[in-house]
Amino acid sequence: MLENLFNLISDRILAPVVAWVIPAGYADYTLYTLEVLVKIFAILLPLLLCVAYLLYAERKIIGYIQCRLGPNRVGFFGFRLWGLGQPIADVVKLIFKEIIIPAGANKRLFVIAPVLAIAPSLAAWAVIPFADTLVLADINAGLLYILALTSLAVYGIIVAGWASNSKYAFLGAMRSAAQIVSYEIAMGFALVCVLIAAGSLNLGQIISAQNGSILHWYWVPLLPIFLVYFISGVAETNRAPFDVAEGESELVAGFHVEYGGMAFSIFFMAEYANMVLISVLTAVLFCGGWLSPFQGLPLLGDVPSISEPHLFWLLLKTSVFLFLFLWFRATFPRYRYDQIMRLGWKVFLPITIVWIVVISGMVVTGVPPWFN
Fold first, then answer.
1. Which tens digit of pLDDT belongs to each residue from 16-48?
2. Are the C-beta atoms of residues 279 and 124 closer than 8 Å to each other?
3. Peptide bond before 87: cis, by omega within 30 degrees of 0?
4. pLDDT of 242-287, one tens digit each?
5. H helix runs in the chain, sequence order
């Protein structure tokens, strides 16, 4: 359906406009560029809308967990509609708030830092496969590309803390840098385990290697790595219970304490975009991506409507992992900084190293049903 819609836009709108405006020698290249831009907007616009309403979902879900109502006033056209207009009201409010740059701050870096924080989390979506043929850039080194871009997110936080000319912001940035680097190593080794299991760096081929029922997915042979990767993702996004980088009780707000208005909201958008990215990657790498959990099972596997691969399954799995992000925040108290460092270096890192050897042995011996 999505491919047919894109072909319709390309054939009926883009191609006639390009043929009418652009000289013949440049028409093909211009049409290709416009098609890529349409695909980029088709990914980014729903993602940004998802980020806005993920914040709404967080406030509602945590409200229900804590026996509160959450947002329920701002709606549309005079109707409250369970507060669904709250994210739009928040955006409008932030747009009109003044951005104040502290005295003594490095103005150029102060403005660049939010862009450095959000750009990697958006650019990483270029290689995320939404279905067998729905991917912007189907590159063979997709896993390496993801690892490289997610590693760049720490620079936005470090630059924001240093450029703010504030001790609170600088301490928050240093905490975050140490935390992200620590858990990035564990996540890197977890990706190595997936690479060994699938024998490919291409995300689409990794999903295809998990073809089968829910028991054929990599969460079964890589269960410790699956848990390490997701928990490390929670830590890398500075979410509770790993949110010492913000540390409201001792650092006021951490690395973005001096930011206001849209500059402040961009850091929040980056955090929530990273949450969505980690959830999608967890679904792709360990839970079969767009594959149906009922494929190959008796009785249910014979029903085409629920056993066929579909974008719906990827969105459903992503939603489950996003719910876990929100559930953790409402449930667990914040860890001490030494506990976070010990978990990353003394627990997760040894587990990933040991499991690299284990999964290598399973691949060599052809353990069924994953590697035979």
1. 887 888 887 777 888 888 888 988 999 999 999
2. no
3. no
4. 887 766 566 567 788 889 888 889 998 999 999 999 999 999 999 9
5. 2-9, 15-21, 24-65, 86-95, 107-123, 142-163, 167-198, 203-208, 223-236, 248-251, 261-286, 304-307, 311-331, 337-342, 349-365
